[in-house]
Amino acid sequence: xxxxxxxxxxxxxxxxxxxxxxxxxxxxxxxxxxxxxxxxxxxxxxxxxxxxxxxxxxxxxxxxxxxxxxxxxxxxxxxxxxxxxxxxxxxxxxxxxxxxxxxxxxxxxxxxxxxxxxxxxxxxxxxxxxxxxxxxxxxxxxxxxxxxxxxxxxxxxxxxxxxxxxxxxxxxxxxxxxxxx
Length: 181
Prior knowledge:
The chain has helices at 24-37, 63-85, 104-115, 117-121, 160-163, and strands spanning 8-13, 42-49, 53-60, 97-100.
């Protein structure tokens, strides 16, 4: 069980045979599912969409809220993806992978992993931030970003680790790439 006081890095993997989740219509469906899924007891504070998986950072008041929030997001986003594709059937793999991050360094590494994951999967992409992520609303980059569109699809972090603690190890540069896990 994950502790409520810690953010959780969660990964959802798509089943084989689906088109890229980064296409404009599918990304928009996932982003709207993220926006609709935020509640005070379980909220998504960061996310990125890759070709066949989604990384998210959740904060939840307890393990039950985390499980319910993750399950709700998986169902909501699967329905939205199926609606866009005009199909039926499972979208996500059988289970999601969740890991509590428990220190400032782990939290910073998880934020970099989530927001800068496109650099791992798309090494020739020279953009500063991933347009298929919540990076446009992130306030922890060393360099200033252009003003993000409103409203953000995510909530501001409330846990000490995700809001303040990770900053002990420095703001994030646009050129950073995720460390291998």
